[in-house]
Structures are given as structure tokens and as C-alpha cells.
Specification:
Helices cover 41% and strands 24% of the residues. It is α/β, with parallel strands linked by helices. It has 2 domains: 2-79 and 159-258, 3-Layer(aba) Sandwich (Rossmann fold); 87-157, no CATH class. Strands 6-7-8-3-9-10 form a 6-stranded mixed beta sheet, sandwiched between helices. Helix 3 packs parallel to helix 5. The two termini are 36 Å apart. 40% of the residues are buried.
């Protein structure tokens, strides 16, 4: 069942076409990955879904409702939350205060401070920041700032979560932790649309993947279908990466057969 659907999304910035006639959908409960070269229009599409940018053409429906033209805070209250590629913590606020502020918006805005504090506690435990509750947000490490950005989005109790490069700049171990956390969030019932350049991550957690190239939708499919797509290999992945992943998957399959 589609929870989010886009039809014919087109956006121009002067003479540059950032998105051109893009069609997509998210099934309820899935993780949909969005990849492509720099400048291919990925963040523009996320900004359009989140209400930060209005497309020149096309429509987006969330649970059957047209959301084009709605303000970001309205879209958030309907049940779509997002993170931002450039993390910007609230200056002078602690980790807990930051998340408490987020609970005042979103699908079920908290009117009681006691309930807001309880919700913030639950979210901070989920993202493993419960030990940083009283630290100033701007003093966190890059990895913890990414977690806080995620916590802010989750504090709005979303049905759909838009993740814009939440794993950029993380170490391999931190990336593994972020992947596990993303899967845990999906298991809780949240549908996820993730933009990511870390191929290990997006290939490892996505049910389906969309590939944008020069503003257009090049391909959509499972991770294995994408790494076998010659157009995607030439435009983005590269033959070396695709071959490595194919060999890896074939080895896993043989191991399963032998066992």
C-alpha cells in the first residue's frame, strides 16, 4: 500500500533542471533509498516532499492527500519528518531541550511539559543519546550531532521519515550503528525515504532504490537489480564497485546453499 506518491515532479532553477518528470512511491513500512551523482537532484526531491520547495509541475500525495503547497510545519504535523544534510544544532540548548522542542510540533504535538519530557526521554534512548541529555547540542561530536538530528525528526512521531545523508562523515563502525538504528526505526512502523552516498549503507538497508541522474529518474529496483543495471554502473557506481558487490552476494548465496 502506497503511503507516499509523487507524479511528474519537475523543478527548474533558472536554466537548470533539478528534477524532471519524476514518478515515485513509498510502500508503507519500507525503506526506499535515493542515490545518484552530486547535483542529480536528490536533495531537491526531498525538499519538495518536505515542503521546503514547491515544484513547477507535478503532485505529491501523502495517504491520498495532495500536499503540494503546504508549509513544512503543516506537512510535519501530517506525519512527515525530515533530517537535514547540514546539521544545525540549536545554540545554547541542551540535547534534551532540543528534542523537547521537537515534540511540540509533528503529528501529535505535546501540550504538557511532562509528556514532552517523557517523549524526549524515549527518543533519546532510541538513538542512544540518553547519556548526553544535559550536554550542549553544539558541543557534540559529528556522530552524536547526526543522532540528535535524527532525534529531532523522530520527536514529531512521524509516519514517514526523510533522511538526507545522515551517515555522511561517520566512521565505518558509526555507519554500522547508524544502519542498525535505521532498521530499528523501520521496525517500529516508520516508513523511510533515505538519500545517501555511503553505498554500503544504502545497499545494505534499502528494500528498493531509486537512481537519479541529471535530474531524471534513471532506474528503480532492488539493490541487486541496481548493481546489475549497466546504465547505473556507467553513470554512478562504476564497474569495480558493482563487480565487487556481485561477487560478494554470489559468495553469500553459495554459503547458504552449502549450509
Amino acid at each position: 500500500m502506497n503511503i507516499l506518491e509523487g507524479e511528474g515532479i519537475t523543478k527548474h532553477f533558472g536554466g537548470v533542471t533539478a528534477n524532471k518528470d519524476i514518478h515515485f512511491h513509498l510502500d508503507k513500512g519500507e525503506i526506499l533509498g535515493l542515490i545518484g551523482p552530486n547535483g542529480s537532484g536528490k536533495t531537491t526531491l526531498i525538499n519538495i516532499v518536505g515542503g521546503n520547495i514547491k515544484p513547477d509541475k507535478g503532485r505529491i500525495q501523502f495517504e491520498g492527500m495532495d500536499i503540494i503547497g503546504l508549509k513544512p510545519y503543516h506537512i510535519c504535523r501530517l506525519g512527515i519528518s525530515r533530517t537535514y544534510q547540514v546539521v544545525q544544532p540549536f545554540a545554547g540548548m541542551t540535547v534534551r531541550e532540543t528534542v523537547v522542542a521537537g515534540t511540540m510540533f509533528g503529528r501529535n504535538p505535546q501540550r504538557s511539559m511532562a509528556l514532552a519530557m517523557r517523549k524526549a526521554k524515549e527518543v533519546l534512548e532510541l538513538v542512544h543519546l540518553q547519556d548526553k541529555t544535559h550536554e550542549l547540542a553544539e558541543e557534540l561530536t559529528v556522530a552524536d550531532l547526526k543522532k540528535l538530528e535524527l532525534a529531532k525528526a523522530l520527536s514529531g512521531d512521524p509516519k514517514v521519515l526523510l533522511l538526507d545523508e545522515v551517515m555522511a562523515g561517520l566512521t565505518p563502525r558509526e555507519t554500522d550503528e547508524a544502519m542498525a538504528l535505521t532498521l530499528k526505526i523501520r521496525k517500529s512502523g516508520v516508513t523511510i525515504f533515505i538519500v545517501e552516498h555511503v553505498m554500503k549503507a544504502v545497499m545494505g538497508i534499502s528494500d528498493r532504490i531509486m537512481v537519479l541522474h541529471q535530474g531524471s529518474l534513471m532506474a528503480t529496483g532492488t539493490p541487486q537489480e541496481i548493481i546489475r543495471n549497466e546504465s547505473v554502473i556507467q553513470a554512478y557506481l562504476g564497474e569495480k564497485y558493482a563487480k565487487k558487490k556481485r561477487v560478494s552476494k554470489e559468495g553469500e548465496s553459495n554459503a547458504i546453499v552449502r549450509s
